[in-house]
Amino acid sequence: MVDKVKIARQFIEAIPHARALGMELTEIGDGRAVITMPYDERLIGDPETGVIHGGAVSAMMDTCCGAAVMSHPSAPGATATIDLRIDYMRAATPGQRITTTANCYHITRSVAFVRATAVDDDTDRPVAAATGAFTVEKR
Amino acid sequence: MARPRPEPVQVVKQRRDAALTALVDGVPYSRFLGIEFDRRGDELTGVMNFDEKLIGNPFLPALHGGATAAFLEVTAIITLGWSQLWPQIETGALDPQDMAAGRLPRLPKTIDFTVDYLRSGLPRDAYARATISRSGRRYASVHVAAWQDHHDKHYAQATGHFLMPQPVVPDGGA
């Protein structure tokens, strides 16, 4: 079990796009993953306010959900996104790091269902929420 | 009454292209992802130039789903913003030089965005075109599809809802 978590962590941290965005996997295991991403001016979507682009939040959500699936005890290995819906509740506060927590709440032989929430320093008011379906490799 | 003489083609093209470039390059994240736009009249096609940093699975290799999602979202926002600004660009009410200097009009804000991943993204350039299903005063609904080698084989598509920027109330207005 520990090995699978280690493999998942190495896999996530080796993803070029995740590295380019500065993502860091802080927790993983049992279908749950936490990824944080520091504030970065290259990721700004609105130059006037300095707010991070929704697309960068999407990328983090997608990676985090995938990591949660890979860490689920019933998932044999790699996964791919089937669909992902993101609700943007508010703008992330410029200068603050964003943290996403994803939970794989149900898994079948072929599909994994995942929910995720992203927050900044104000953890009581989520920045965004995601729901997705992911593939499960055949055993 | 005589019809006014049409503007020379290069004047029209220069104005439209300058406005588009200012709009796209004004967003740091679009530059980070290497996204550009091709324009035919008012029709836009987003282009995400391939780069190693867009890879999500180094073993296949395949584009990162998040990079694709972001590309679709950027294409949707720019297409929506562009369609809204087009009349002002044509009349000259919006000055491309002002835009390039950083005085950019507000762009629509994403409310929600749902991406379908149809095929894995190959390690090469991707293209996307957005269709505005409905654009009201406050909300808009946009569909966007992306392809790589074959235009009829989409590798991803998305639908999103957007909050339209509200016109600035003139001074003295109630």
Descriptive report:
- The complex is a heterodimer of chains A (139) and B (174).
- With 139 residues, chain A is an alpha+beta fold.
- Chain A contains three helices and eight strands, in the order H-H-E-E-E-E-H-E-E-E-E.
- Chain A has a single domain, classed as Thiol Ester Dehydrase, Chain A (Roll).
- A six-stranded antiparallel beta sheet of chain A has the order 1-2-6-7-8-5, with helices on one face. Chain A has a two-stranded antiparallel sheet with strand order 3-4.
- In chain A, strand 3 (44-46) and strand 4 (51-52) form a beta hairpin.
- The longest helix of chain A has 17 residues, at 54-70.
- The mean pLDDT of chain A is 92.
- By secondary structure, chain B is of the alpha+beta class.
- Chain B has one domain (9-163): Hotdog Thioesterase (Thiol Ester Dehydrase, Chain A).
- Chain B has four helices and eight strands; from the N terminus they run ααββββααββββ.
- Chain B has helices at residues 9-25, 28-33, 65-91, 96-100, and strands spanning 35-40, 43-48, 55-57, 62-63, 109-117, 126-135, 139-147, 154-163.
- In chain B, helix 1 (9-25) packs across helix 3 (65-91).
- Chain B starts with 8 loop residues before the first helix and ends in an 11-residue tail after the last strand.
Number of domains of chain B: 1
Say how many strands of chain B there are. 8
- Over all CA atoms, what is the radius of gyration of chain A? 15 Å
Could you describe the largest sheet of chain A, including whether it forms a barrel? Answer: 6 strands, antiparallel
Give the low-pLDDT segments of chain B.
none
**Percentage of residues in strands of chain A:** 35-45%
Mean pLDDT over the residues of chain A: 92
Instruction: Report the helical percentage of chain B.
Output: 25-40%
CATH class of chain A: Alpha Beta
Describe the largest sheet of chain B: 6 strands, antiparallel
**Radius of gyration of chain B using CA atoms only:** 18 Å
Strand order of the largest sheet of chain A: 1-2-6-7-8-5
Distance between the termini of chain A: 16 Å
Just give the CATH class of chain B: Alpha Beta
- Give the termini distance of chain B in whole angstroms: 40 Å
CATH topology of chain A: Thiol Ester Dehydrase, Chain A
Oligomer: heterodimer
Question: Given the helix and strand composition of chain B, which structural class is it?
Answer: alpha+beta
Task: Identify low-pLDDT runs of chain A.
Answer: none
Domain Thioesterase (chain A): 50-124
Organism (chain A): Antarcticimicrobium luteum
Protein name (chain A): PaaI family thioesterase
Keywords (chain A): Hydrolase
